[in-house]
TrEMBL record:
GO CC terms of this entry: ESCRT III complex; multivesicular body
Protein name stated in the entry: CHMP6 protein
Coiled coil spans: 28-70
Location in the cell: Endosome membrane
Family membership noted in the UniProt record: Belongs to the SNF7 family.
Species of origin: Alca torda
Keyword entries, A-Z: Coiled coil, Endosome, Membrane, Protein transport, Transport
TM region(s), chain numbering: none
Record GO biological process: late endosome to vacuole transport via multivesicular body sorting pathway; protein transport; vesicle budding from membrane
InterPro entries the UniProt entry points to: Snf7_fam (IPR005024)
Chief localization: membrane
Pfam families noted in UniProt: Snf7
Superkingdom, natural source: Eukaryota
Gene: Chmp6
Region span, Disordered: 143-176
Length: 176
């Protein structure tokens, strides 16, 4: 609000400066040098007021920016505060000792499982392994159904086949 009031003041003084300058010219033309000089001094004083007003406006704008930035910083700090409180609550729920205990229990469980695996893998002797392989072969044999092999001995010489009479020759059959 103050900035706006200062800008209005600047406009008003600026218009006065223009009028006084024009009036000083008129006074010089009329031969009233002393009055024109007095008006120009007054004009000079008002120009200095305008410079001071400009500095004040600049200071006010800088202050407004600082306030806005400080408000943003306050929101950031409030967010950090809430985040810190949340972390503290989480740390209360999960203490370092609790995390170490859970990690230790997990490592114990993994070690226990490894021992069980070793016992199971190492509990079979070589005889057990051989017995398992024999059982596997027996099951494989049962699943394969092979045709029966004749138990009679095969003849040593195969008798020659007797020619069939009245059998047409292939060449004649194809021609007819």
């Amino acid at each position: 609000q103050q900035r706006d009031k200062l800008k209005q003041f600047q406009r008003r003084v600026g218009l006065n400066l223009q009028r006084e300058r024009a009036l000083a010219r008129q006074l010089l033309q009329d031969g009233k040098r002393e009055k024109a000089l007095l008006l120009l001094k007054k004009k000079r004083y008002q120009e200095q007021l305008l410079d001071k007003t400009e500095n004040q406006i600049s200071n006010l704008e800088r202050m407004v920016q600082d306030i806005e930035f400080t408000q943003i910083e306050m929101k950031v700090i409030e967010g950090l505060k809430i985040g810190n409180e949340c972390l503290n609550k989480m740390h209360q729920v999960m203490s370092i000792e609790e995390v170490e205990r859970i990690i230790g229990e997990t490592q114990d469980a993994v070690e226990y499982q490894r021992q069980i695996d070793e016992l199971l893998a190492g509990s079979l002797t070589e005889e057990d392994e051989d017995a398992i392989l024999e059982e596997l072969n027996a099951i494989t044999q049962e699943q394969m159904e092979l045709p029966e092999v004749p138990s009679e001995p095969l003849p040593e010489k195969i008798p020659e086949a007797s020619p069939v009479k009245n059998k047409p020759k292939p060449e004649l059959v194809a021609a007819s």
